[in-house]
Hints:
By secondary structure, the chain is α+β, with helices and mostly antiparallel strands. Helices cover about 25% and strands about 20% of the residues. The strands form four sheets. Strands 4, 5, 6, 7, 11 and 13 form a six-stranded antiparallel beta sheet that branches.
Amino acid sequence: MTTLPQFRFNEQALDASPAALGPLRSSTDALDDRGELHQRMALDGYLFLPGLLDRDQVQAARTSSLERLAEQDLFLPGQPLDEALLKPGVHMRSAQSVPLDNPPLFDLLYGSHMIEFYESFLGGPVRPLDYTWFRAKTPTQDSATKPHCDIVYMGRGTENLYTSWTPLGDIPYEMGGLLVLEKSHLNEELKRTYGQTDVDVYCENEGDAAEIIGRARAANRALTREEMDSIRWSTDGVYSHDPTAVRTELGGRWLTAEFQMSDVLIFSMHTLHCSHDNQTRHLRISTDSRYQLASEPIDPRWIGDDPPGNGIHAKRGTIC
Ligand SMILES: O=C(O)CCC(=O)C(=O)O
């Protein structure tokens, strides 16, 4: 990394000194060496695979996704769709309707290149989770994703589960992108504490939590914001709201790259990550999708035609 723009996280400057920020190591050279890929995943907690996907296929998925987003009236009229040039004032972090009934995106994420990679890496038939997270990041306050590990969201199946973060467009530094905290997956204390939490677990012996959940479940409805706030949860999901404080506490650098269409960043359930601000007027789009061996236990929240996700039926009580 030579000349870097000022990285920001929710409008706060991030330290871009070499001690604080570094490049992701590419593992394209090891694609044919499963043993080496496993060693790198064990050592680094991620595999950065520039060019793993077919660029034309990514372009097709980008176009079909932008077409769906354009229906939401986000973009400046009269501009090429591919520019994804935002109208002033649009605020967005995700767009979960975009992956639904979107064959080019489905083919990209669950078709040959990605699945062949995972079959080789995991050594057997692969089962992706059925839920696709679609990120759509505008240059507005509170759009960047806060530091977290995926285990707290999808830890009810095997831990031998991996996230693919797939940019649907070229992402220069100014547009933000994913940051991985170096060696965070090896932090045993983090794994024993935050890593044991589950975003859908609540303290059933505190206040009216059990009654509130019971009522909502009986009515088959989501919790209201007020109900959510009145319950003590195992975690709110994020590890911290401040990537600088996280680095000071846990050590390591934030690692990133200027991502290109066709790159994939794969990481483990215990790898701490976040994203940084999109500082352009163009929408940044990407997906996160997840893969495991078909033979291993799977988190029921994320499978099926209409996965229940973090809905009312996923909530579990515990004695705190
Ligand atoms: O794209 C982002 O901002 C966050 C992605 C993420 O958190 C993930 O892939 O687990």
